[in-house]
Amino acid sequence: MTDLVLLSGGMDSTAALAVSQHAGRLGAALSIRYGQRHAVEIDHARAITEHYGIQHYILDLSAWGALLSGSALTDPSVDLPYGHYAAESMKATIVPNRNATFLSAACGVAISLGHDQVVTAVHAGDHAIYPDCRPEFIDALNEAIALGTEDAVHISAPFVHVSKTQIAAIGADLDAPFELSWSCYEGGALHCGRCGTCTERIEAFRDSGVPDPTVYQSQAA
Ligand SMILES: [Zn+2]
């Protein structure tokens, strides 16, 4: 009864990994390379797995990502929007059908590695613009995966009804190594402090009262 945690290297999946460890279920972590602008997150994911002393698997879906034009995360010709996540402009950061792709692939890997659960850190703040982060999608996919694998593996989304501010607090309680995590979509040397995911990260630490270990290049007021 062990988990394969989908670990992007961001603070949500870092906290999800801490939750899995706390539950005594932590098996291994899987990160996915999909041609993302911020591939530096994979290095952070590796550091997080080293912190926990677990195996880190990397699935290379770069060829899939290369066919996804039109998303600011995979298409260098599309500008990254700045501002708050809930804004309409953030739809440019949607990677089409990403979670169905990642979770399906991860479930196959989990079965092969002998894990019976895949953990995803989708959270309530993602619902507004990312349809594949909503509870009804996770439930439906879970049902499909159960049918397709004769119940060999399930998807757990511990934060699907939890806000990012609550995730910061839960992670801090469990000593999640947030200082090793990476959120910024820009993928520069420092967190930019202005993109949607930086904005969310700043707010989550501020609103939860958890000290923010991040150095930001600049910070929107
Ligand atoms: Zn940023």
Secondary structure: elements and pairs:
Blueprint: E1 3-6, H1 11-22, E2 26-33, H2 40-52, E3 55-60, H3 62-66, H4 98-113, E4 117-119, H5 135-149, E5 154-156, H6 164-173, H7 196-208
Parallel strand pairs: 1-2, 1-4, 2-3, 4-5
Helix pairs in contact: 1-6, 6-7
This protein binds zinc ion.
Walkthrough of the structure:
The structure is a single chain. This protein is globular. The chain has a single domain (3-220), classed as Rossmann fold (3-Layer(aba) Sandwich). It is of the alpha/beta class. Strands 3-2-1-4-5 form a 5-stranded parallel β-sheet, sandwiched between helices. The chain has helices at 11-22, 40-52, 62-66, 98-113, 135-149, 164-173, 196-208, and strands spanning 3-6, 26-33, 55-60, 117-119, 154-156. The model has no long low-confidence stretch (mean pLDDT 91). Helix 1 (11-22) packs across helix 6 (164-173) and helix 6 (164-173) packs across helix 7 (196-208). It has 7 helices and 5 strands; from the N terminus they run βαβαβααβαβαα. 38% of the residues lie in helices and 11% in strands. Zinc ion (ZN) binds at residues 184-186, 191-192, 194-195, 197-198. Zinc ion binds at residues 184-186, 191-192, 194-195, 197-198.
Rg calculated over all Cα atoms? 16 Å
CATH superfamily: HUPs
Overall SS class: alpha/beta
Distance between the termini: 46 Å
Gross geometry: globular
Low-confidence stretches: none
Strand order of the largest sheet: 3-2-1-4-5
Remind me, CATH topology?
Answer: Rossmann fold
Strand content: 5-15%
